[in-house]
Amino acid sequence: MIPKELLKKIRQIEIRTRRLVTESLAGQYHSAFKGTGMDFEEVREYQPGDEVRTIDWNVTARMNHPFVKKFREERELTVMLAVDLSGSGLFGSGEHSKRELAAELASVLAFSAIRNQDRVGLVLFTETVEHYLPPRKGRRHVLRVVRDILFRTPKYRGTSVNGALEFVNRVLHHRAIVVLVSDFLGETNLGRAEVMAHLRRKALHSETLGRMSATTLRQVSRRHDVVAVQVIDPYELSLPNLGRLVLKDAETGEVVEVNTGDERRRLAFEARGTKTLAELDRLFRSANVDAIRVRTDEPYEEALARFFDTREKRRRH
Length: 317
Prior knowledge:
With about 325 residues, the protein is of the alpha/beta class. The chain has two domains: about 40-70, no CATH class; about 75-315, Rossmann fold (3-Layer(aba) Sandwich). Helix content is about 45%, strand content about 20%. It is built from ten helices and ten strands. Helix 1 packs across helix 4 (about 140-150) and helix 5 packs parallel to helix 8. The protein starts with a helix and ends with a helix.
């Protein structure tokens, strides 16, 4: 039995995201993602401006004047949402946790997909793949996707992005859109409190990027259209001055005391965070992976709209 509070939250997400999809994002989604091929539609007479390569020479020879083949894009796509359920996703310094934001983003993409007659699947992962929903169509299926992201209680607390990517590569036999939603804080995938504690003692972020294999990312992106969605909290980028704190790692259980009143620590933390984001961006570019970065303290609509707009412009050229 799903608690009433969760059902209410799912319904609120559906209302917000469907309105957003209906008003703006569905068309942008359609323009941003290519179909899997081209279907023959008809043969018609050549008109000035038609592409010469589309001329049907057999029909042209029979009719003694040029005819061209007309094709339409085969639109049905598969969208696979791979969502990180590790312990750090439960953190949020504001009104929403990273997992709640991830669920809402997944809902927007899923409703955009089904509005365009595409199929949606779901992979939930921690340090292992915890749950898999095969791709399907329909509103009820999308609501189950949202419910599972919010309601699923993971068995483990760590993160293995590589394991999730390898699983997706095995279960998807045809080209698909793979949307990887995570904070990308690594195999130990620490949240705000954990990052504040551990960044003082070791170069955690640099280890993390090495663990998310660029080779695995490239292998998947060669077969599929991969989009990385990074969900972050502002406290993971800038350390607040809150004095001495006792912090517990949501994924390892380790407890550490940190003096956040030390300005040098705060500046070092911010510099390391900036460096980490830059390294992550380079990793995605090297693997030919598009990326979206959203924050728990900012509206995500603009980030999604910019992403779709960039994809559409690149597709036209």
